[in-house]
Amino acid sequence: MDKMPRWADVFLVPFINLVLAFLVAGLVVLAIGENPLHAIYFMVKGALGSTSGLGYTLYYATNYIFTGLAVAVAFHARLFNIGGEGQAAVAGLGAAIVLLAFDWPHWSLALPFAVLGAGVFGAAWAFIPAYLQAKRGSHIVITTIMFNFIGAALMGYLLNGILKSPHTQNAESLPFPAGAHLPTAHEVLAPLGIAFSKSAPLNISFLLAIACTVLVWFLLWRTRLGYEIRAFGHSESAAKYAGIPAVKITIITMLISGALAGMLSINVVMGEQEHLIKEFVGGAGFVGIAVALMGRSHPLGIVLAALLFGMLTQGGFELLWEMPTISREMVLVIQALIILFTGALNNLVHDPVERIFLRLRKRKS
């Protein structure tokens, strides 16, 4: 065995990367004349210091879990799906069509069909880049980026056309029926005597995200298809030699990835906004790439990374309020540093840590 333990690769290395990222971010905050410890305090307080802050943190984390899982599934097949933004947007269209089609009597009836509509539309938007990669050799990164822009244009066209609400000048649809309202954390916890903020958008989509996490773990490590996906990702030539069809795995993996990205629309479109607007994804598709990198494409790691980025997103708003000299761009710098250390500079920590474990193993032997 010539590698470090799995737990060290999944947890220790990302933790060290995270510490280094915050140290560098602290130096940047110090350079602009602010106390880094105060900045951390306000960010943690804003993210976790109240039920409202916690609700927003988990709401953002829900989005990042979906997009992180979408990227991770593609990563396991060595496919860089950078199109989560467009897939989630088009999936919102699918969910909205389903929810506007009927006067739903209860959310428990509307939710399964909305999930189906979002999943089908998200998968369909990922299918064309997958087909072009598998059959024509078009690079998946280029085509998925292009489809992000095409998806945004399609949403703008429809929300300024046949789907536009006649009651507003904004590019948005009619409100969904009252029966399609998803219960919020406040509504779920109130009967149990647990007080939770009414203003927090956290809803039962968070449970859907956890369910998707478990299903992805089961798919990748407990099914034949998951084994084929991972084998294909480790070595395409060896997978072909073993009889694993490249075209099939490429397309199926991207369909699953697109459907997972599409689940974001359930949280935002159905759970919070309760109508469809043009730019509801808000960059979560790109954050999902960082979440998957930091979580080492493992479902548990993705949940932890999504919670961190949810805290950064919500805590960043509190930081802007409490420390006006720190701009929104400063919060983006902190996120960028985390992405830099967990992605581009990963080997800066990974290789030394691996050498330490090798030395310790040699001493024991």
Helices and strands, in order, run as HHHHHHHHHHHHHHHH
Strand tally, please?
0
Low-confidence segments, given as residue ranges, are none
Cα distance spanning the termini: 12 Å
Give average pLDDT, whole number.
Answer: 93
Main sheet attributes: strand count, strand direction, barrel closure: none
DSSP helix count? 16
Structural class: mainly alpha
- Kindly estimate the percentage of residues that lie in beta strands according to DSSP: under 5%
- Describe the global form: globular
Question: Fraction of residues in helices?
Answer: over 70%
As a whole number of angstroms, the C-alpha radius of gyration is 21 Å
List the helices and strands and how they pair.
Elements (H helix, E strand, L loop, with lengths): L5 H26 L4 H13 L2 H26 L7 H18 L5 H30 L3 H20 L25 H5 L15 H18 L1 H11 L1 H6 L4 H17 L1 H10 L10 H11 L4 H24 L5 H17 L1 H19 L1
Helix pairs in contact: 1-15, 1-16, 2-3, 2-14, 3-8, 3-11, 3-12, 3-13, 3-14, 4-5, 4-6, 4-11, 4-12, 4-13, 5-6, 5-11, 8-9, 8-14, 9-11, 13-14, 13-15, 14-15
